[in-house]
Amino acid sequence: MCFGCTSSEPVGPADYEGITRQAWKIIGDNYYDPGMEGLDWAAVGRTYIGRTKSTNDQIDLYFNTLSPMAMLLENSHVGVSPPGSNSRKAQGSAMAAAKSGLDVELCLGMHVAEGRRGSSSRFVEVDPTSLLFPLGVRAGWRLFGVQANPENADALQFQLMATDGTQTAFVVPILPAERAKIAEELRVLQSAIDERAQPYRVMRLPAIGASVRIGSPGALRTVVNLERNSPAEKAGISPGSGIPTLTIKPLGADRFAYSATLTPEGGNPHKFEAEVVCERGSNLPVRAARLLEGSVLYLRFDRFEDDVASWVAAELTKRSYQAVLLDLRWNAGGDIEELRRVMALFLGADKVLGTMYPRRGADQAVKTVAPPIASFDGKMAVLVSPISASAAETAASALKAHGIKDARVVAAR
Description:
alpha+beta
């Protein structure tokens, strides 16, 4: 969802509650899982709509209300675009949308892969005799972690999230005889999470008195590349660095305070803090086409956005060449309709790219459309990287699956 995209009227404080209510309703009405991943979506609405009473500006609304609300679903394709994103079709992927109008990290010179979004472990049953039941913990609550309580050696601190989206920590007294049993249950649970148990299975935790659906681990956001002479490069940031923690604080119009912990490969974690001016629209996606040695046409576009299919078609008809090198290393996805049009230029019409599973109605095969020109039938190679996601992943997979003339996918770190 993109707020302010369909109207030229300015958005002000009086609109914040309505915008949040609209985002909450759109997600609730259209998300493919009617159970909303175990959340009480009505209660989520009350929680996040209530936050708008203390919202300062549009940036605050995005970072502290709309985006966190959407992220509760732990789904990489559910998100709210930042202020300044004025193209409806740029909303095809939450990751691509995040790049469409305002990307503070790009302004600092960092190309960052979003990483894999994990899912939290969730209680599916809480016994009335459970040590958590008197605290109000019920099925659907999420378990983020358990740790020793520094103020009380005979207690454990549970990091939890209620079904209304509010996070809380409960300090629970534990009998010495039960402490070892609970510690072992949590060790087994963490081991199952690390092993990415599939499908998500339910694990019984007798000492805690509950059953938990095992979550899956995420992967850190990672710096893939740096712009030369950028603030990030001058600060000594290296490609491959993970970003376990990140805070972006708006300081005013187009000015931001960036603070992150980075973990270089084989190095010690360190802080990177900077203030940066990041104007809306300053990170426009790159498009490039040129003829390489050996009669190879190089094509790069960083988003499946409005008219990119027309641009690709024009580039395919401009020159004489024998092979195509399609560079999707910086492409985080985009509009599915544009994906269908671009893929038609290489696969032809009516080729299946994937399947959509809507909340209502039958499953829908996503197919290529009729191409405006004869589809390319020569050799191809596709470049991908950890940044490549969503529609870019689908494109690479479809080219390989349909076997277009030795189409090869080359992954870059």
